[in-house]
Amino acid sequence: MRLKKCIVPMLCFLILILSACQETKQEKTATTTKTDEKVENSINYTTTPTLFIHGAGGGRSSLGYMIKRFNNQKVASKSLVVIVSSDGSISTENKLNSEQFSNDNPMIQVLFKDNRNNEWEQARWIKLVLEFLQREYNVKEVNIVGHSMGGISGLRYLLQDSQTTDLPKVNKLVAIGSPFNEFIDTLANQTLDELLTEGPSEKSDRYILYENELNGLATDVNMLLIAGKISDEELSDSVVPLSSAFSVNKMLLDHGNQVEYVLVEGHGANHSDLHENQIVDEVVSQFLWDKK
Question: What CATH number does residue 225 fall under?
């Protein structure tokens, strides 16, 4: 796997983690050893659940293997599967025996039965999931990991509802291969650096709507944007242009959010491979749980 020249090492892998606001980046917090069965890692273990939301047409396997890997590595623990029907009704699997999540970075897989609906309807379903978690498990805060459309719907929820309700607060959003500027590739007209510092040279209707609704987004939500680049000739993950996946970087920074972005190149950078990529696992677990 190839990454750009400005890549920095992390855990024996070469990873590009470029944060435009490193001076305000939170410090890593705690080294905690869980039970005797768990390997000692530098990980911030909390009761805060992380919701994993698949993309358009996705299902159990979309982010299920990533969840399984984190669980096997004892970085986090798969706690619940929440299934949302098209009418918004919710059912669960692996129902917890207790009334709250344990202190092991619980993970919740969210499955939409109508898995090709639009971002507004999916944002409504995310709100219903948060209402359910608050009601049933007294959840106060969450993180969200979204692949493709899952990242789009996560941001749409944050823009529309996160500050207008008393629902659990979203601390962090990870967007993996999400087409925030739809499928417009602007890198024929601007460099990647220009995109990151100036925003996209061409804006889709979706992007313009983000700009118009940005005041709905809390500035203390931290974001991680992940994009794939198959080759120097194909500046995309085969589905989403990397310029689209990174398009909101400047907008979010100007709004006051902390943003990191990660570019994965070459083998494993394909759209459907990004959530099976070991480097992506590492940067996601570092971003969410301070894994060293």
Answer: 3.40.50.1820
